[in-house]
Amino acid sequence: MMASIMTTTRKSDRRSTGRTAGLLLAAGAGRRYGMPKALVRRGERPLVEWAARTLREGGCAPVVVVLGAAAEEVHEQADLLDALIVDNPDWPTGMGSSLRAGLAALAATDAESTVVLLVDTPGITPAAVRRLTAAGSTTTSLAVATYHGERGHPVLLGREHWPGVAELAVGDVGARPYLRRHQVREIPCADIADGRDIDTNIDVPTQDGGR
């Protein structure tokens, strides 16, 4: 079954204002956490809003958000009116299907590259997104944020790499297998962001993080 795409962008937002798009993966059920992480609250807003805002304020346009588990609740609770929403019915198969669905949606835009972000990394800041794209954002770019020498998110994928990434994104695997096979620029971001994903509600930042 193919992912369905529902555009909720305002007309003025459909034209990319830049060459780097944002791709937010927010389809998981969060079984270990106990609820879909897209709906986890940080202050008064769900994490999916924070993450979409991070990409937008980081200079990404358009921003594509892939939903799956509890998609109806996310639509009801989150303000994503300036995003291109992709509903992925294959979300139970793992993150790979969401990455493929998001890249397929982006193929219809004029974006030359995309910054991929996971919804359960609320410590990522717009500054980290900007640093990643400032290092070079072209159709051939491959870059990843690092934290104390360890690779994390976000990840920058040039358009020429999208088909190869999609081919290897199977099950609960994203871009990692593709990145292992290619030369990737590593961008240290530990001074401006926290790359850890959340495992419990204790891990969710309560403040704005200096945005």
Helix content: 10-25%
> How are the strands of the largest sheet arranged?
1-6-5-2-7-9-8-10
How large is the share of residues in beta strands? 15-25%
Distance between the termini: 39 Å
Question: Could you walk me through the main structural features you see in this protein, from its secondary elements to its overall organization?
Answer:
By secondary structure, this protein is an alpha/beta fold. It has 6 helices and 10 strands. 24% of the residues lie in helices and 23% in strands. The strands form 2 sheets. An 8-stranded mixed β-sheet has the order 1-6-5-2-7-9-8-10, with helices on both faces. Strand 3 (41-42) and strand 4 (45-46) form a beta hairpin. Helix 3 (95-106) packs antiparallel against helix 5. The radius of gyration is 15 Å and the shape is globular. Mean pLDDT is 88; it is low at 4-17.
Summarize it.
The chain is of the alpha/beta class and 211 residues long.
Q: What attributes does this structure have?
A:
211 residues, alpha/beta, 8-stranded mixed sheet, 10 strands, two-stranded antiparallel sheet
Task: Describe the secondary-structure layout.
Blueprint: E1 4-7, E2 20-26, E3 41-42, E4 45-46, H1 47-57, E5 63-67, H2 71-77, E6 84-87, H3 95-106, E7 113-118, H4 126-134, E8 142-147, E9 150-158, H5 162-168, H6 176-180, E10 185-188
Parallel strand pairs: 2-5, 2-7, 5-6, 8-10
Antiparallel strand pairs: 1-6, 3-4, 7-9, 8-9
